[in-house]
Amino acid sequence: MKIGFIGLGNMGGPMAANLAKAGHEVIGFDLAAPAPEGVTMAASGAKAGSGVDAVITMLPNGKILRAVADEIIPAMDKGTLFVDCSTVDVDSARAVAQQAVDAGLAPVDAPVSGGTTGAVAGTLTFMAGGPDQAFARAEPLFDIMGQKAVHCGPSGNGQAAKICNNMILGATMIATCESFALADKLGLDRQKMFDVVSTSSGYSWTMNAYCPAPGVGPQSPADNDYKPGFASELMLKDLRLSQQAAEAVDADTPMGQRATELYAQFVESEDGLGSDFSAMLPRFEKRGR
Ligand code: NAD
Which residue among 10, 61, 96 has the greatest number of ligand 1 atoms within 8 angstroms of its CB, and so is best to mutate? Predict the structure, then answer.
């Protein structure tokens, strides 16, 4: 396929390189990032988006996605597949998908989980929303860039799945970290705490697979001085998107709301910026009630 790829940053760069490595012709555009291996650069987003079979975008937020969509949709040939892999608000995802359908394009919103290591290794998980036919056309590309793609329903549902997952993740990480900090103060050894919780009803991905306590459980960013991993500011971005969506549909999400407040405090008023989101454990450790 001939593929236009717009947004070649930490995630988009390696994803585009993997498509090129698999034999696709990839035409890239980014305001700042250099050309990934095997990718030919175009002079504008519109140029990368015209005369291709598919366009993939991997951009910072919904506002930028809407601006890029306004620029490229008029330049895209009818029938072109338009896959947005950015994490954005559900409203922007649905608005851009409608704009694409009106222009005769086939839209898929397909945010990812798996981080930069998954982007490089081609092991991302895609959670996708959009018409069946558009998803079916995008699947072979998901297979190259990732290990799993779930079709979650109509346009916007990929973003909905992503923010619901990450709302659980943020709240669970905080619960795991505050429990370790309490266990410390109660004189409970961290390894014993892990041995019990990881095989009891308090188990979770954050405890069992991504343990925030250094030297306990499998290797995780805690064992690398809390270098991300998944940075706290990215967790905050996703939590804010979850609360924006909850407000829009009048959903009561008190744990998500509190997790958003705590990560905002951690990133904006404390030393959380640039640390992995599991660095909540040393944060709690230093604090008293
Ligand atoms: P990034 O900042 O490294 O990359 C974004 C790129 O978009 C930059 O290179 C920037 O120059 C480019 N860009 C901005 N405006 C543009 C425009 N108008 N036209 C063309 N290019 C433009 O960010 P990233 O880490 O690659 O993340 C991209 C998306 O993936 C975000 O929505 C993020 O939330 C999501 N995401 C990131 C991770 C992660 O671990 N980094 C994990 C899952 C999802």
Answer: 10
Catalytic site residue 21? no
Judging by beta carbons within 10 Å of its beta carbon (0-12, 13-18, 19+), is residue 43 exposed, middle or buried?
Answer: exposed
Q: What distance in angstroms lies between residue 258's CA and the mean position of ligand 1's atoms?
A: 26
For residue 135, what are its two tokens? 């998803």
- For the stretch 18-50, pLDDT in tens is 999 999 999 999 999 999 999 999 999 999 999
Mind listing the pLDDT tens digit for each residue in 45-100? 999 999 999 999 999 999 999 999 999 999 999 999 999 999 999 999 999 999 99
Helix (H, G, I), strand (E, B) or coil at 40: strand
Q: Which of 107, 145, 113, 106 is nearest to 127 (CA)?
A: 113
Q: Which of 21, 47, 63, 162 is catalytic?
A: 162
Q: Are strands 112-113 and 124-128 parallel, antiparallel or unpaired?
A: antiparallel
